[in-house]
Each structure stands twice: as structure tokens, then as C-alpha cells.
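> example.struct
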């Protein structure tokens, strides 16, 4: 993973702006190292992805590991009858394609839901970086651990019997992601469709529409197309702790 000619580090022809790609990638996965080391390593590729653009296809041979820099990606599998089963939404700092390390083929399809970008590292460079740059290896392990925590959250969402409770948990998860990214935890813009949300939560998209209506009727949210305003985040959290939806008139009040 080292540059073949270390004398190039002192060359004015080397674009030091390119060296910052590794710095940014390490920052995204929470693993900063000494900046003077960055120029010794080949840099990840910064790859823009248009809204609706394909990052990789289910069943295709894996060639790279990706870290989300900007935007939101939908990750899904396609069943034999053509149904898209959404298994996740990836945001800033999350790994994509990591599961393909098991058999060198992608288990899912991943597309951008908006203008997005990723840092891509070829598999050969990925293994070399993990070996030669401990901070990168620690960051990858941290990102993989976060993915396991995310899976636990999905199971918690699915444990609720009522669609409106599942939706409440989903909105709180998006809220937490927004807050962690330095944005408002109460003003959300959903990049995914209601059909995508329904597939992710295991219910029909018509049921998701009714669930939005139920949360609005309970005075917990306001909805304007894909813009969601959480009116009372504490009450929404109490609502989300139920396994079944509260009876009418029993929704938690602030």
C-alpha cells in the first residue's frame, strides 16, 4: 500500500490535495492518525454517485469496499418474484460492500437515494491498509461494530406488533442519525419513499401511510411530503416503547 517511490513525497508534482482523501476517510470512520503518514499510502478514490445511481449489484463480484462520504444509500435484496426487500439505509461514515468479503460477491444491491459520494478502496488496497495502517484497521472494526448495533436496532423495530410503533422507532433512529451529524433532531427530510420504509419495516406501504396518519393524529409529528417535524420527541420515545399502539385517547402526552 506504500507509494512505490518515496522520493515522490517531496515532489512538487504530487497533488497534496489528493492526500487528504485518506485523512477524510479515516475521519469518517472515527480513526484519525498522524497526518504526516498519509502521503506514504495510496489514496482511496472519491466517487460521486448520482441520485438513483447504482453503487453495486447483488451477485456481482466485489472489487472494492466503500465508505459513505455524503448522501443516503438504499441497500436491498431482490426476491425471486422481483420484490425489493430493503435491508438498510446507509449514511455518512458507514461501510458498504463489507459483507462481500465472505465470498467475494455482493449480497445486496445498493443505490443512492440522492446526490451522494463514497470513498472506494480496492480489495487489495483494503487488505494492505488494514495491515500497514493500524488506525485504518481500528476504524474498520469500529464501523463493522456499529453495523452490528444497527442490526440490533432493526430487530427492535421489527419486534413491535403495530406499524405505527415500528414507524415511531424508525423516525427516532433517523432523528438520532441527524443529531449525530450535527443537524436538527426534530426536522427530518426522508430521502426514501413510503414503499421503501414499508419494505424495511416489514409492512405494506399503504400501512405506512396509515401509520403516519396515526402519529399525526396523536400530535407527535407533522408531515409535509417527505419533510417530517417531530413535535414532541420525548412523547414519541414513550410511544415507541410500546409493543402495540396505544388505544385512541391513550397516546402519551407531554
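> example.seq
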Amino acid at each position: 500500500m506504500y507509494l512505490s517511490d518515496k522520493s515522490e513525497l517531496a515532489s512538487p508534482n504530487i497533488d497534496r490535495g489528493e492526500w487528504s482523501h485518506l485523512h477524510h476517510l479515516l475521519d469518517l470512520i472515527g480513526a484519525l492518525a498522524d497526518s504526516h503518514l498519509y502521503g506514504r499510502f495510496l489514496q482511496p478514490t472519491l466517487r460521486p454517485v448520482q441520485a438513483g445511481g447504482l453503487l453495486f449489484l447483488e451477485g456481482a463480484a466485489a472489487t472494492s469496499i466503500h465508505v459513505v462520504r455524503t448522501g443516503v444509500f438504499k441497500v436491498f435484496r431482490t426476491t425471486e418474484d422481483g420484490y425489493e426487500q430493503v435491508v438498510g439505509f446507509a449514511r455518512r461514515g458507514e461501510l458498504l460492500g463489507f459483507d462481500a468479503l465472505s465470498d467475494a460477491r455482493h449480497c445486496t444491491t445498493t443505490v443512492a437515494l440522492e446526490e451522494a459520494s463514497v470513498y472506494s478502496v480496492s480489495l487489495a488496497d483494503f487488505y494492505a491498509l488494514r495491515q500497514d495502517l493500524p488506525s485504518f484497521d481500528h476504524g474498520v472494526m469500529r464501523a463493522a461494530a456499529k453495523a452490528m448495533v444497527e442490526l440490533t436496532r432493526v430487530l427492535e423495530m421489527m419486534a413491535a406488533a403495530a406499524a405505527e410503533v415500528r414507524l415511531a422507532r424508525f423516525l427516532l433512529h433517523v432523528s438520532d442519525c441527524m443529531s449525530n451529524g450535527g443537524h436538527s433532531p426534530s426536522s427530518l427530510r426522508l430521502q426514501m419513499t413510503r414503499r421503501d420504509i414499508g419494505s424495511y419495516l416489514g409492512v405494506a406501504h399503504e400501512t405506512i401511510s396509515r401509520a403516519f396518519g396515526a402519529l399525526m393524529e396523536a400530535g407527535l409529528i407533522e408531515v409535509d411530503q417527505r419533510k417530517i417535524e417531530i413535535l414532541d420527541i420525548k412523547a414519541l420515545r414513550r410511544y415507541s416503547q410500546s409493543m402495540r399502539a396505544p388505544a385512541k385517547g391513550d397516546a402519551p402526552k407531554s
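> remarks
Residues 6-152 form a domain with the Jelly Rolls fold (CATH 2.60.120.10).
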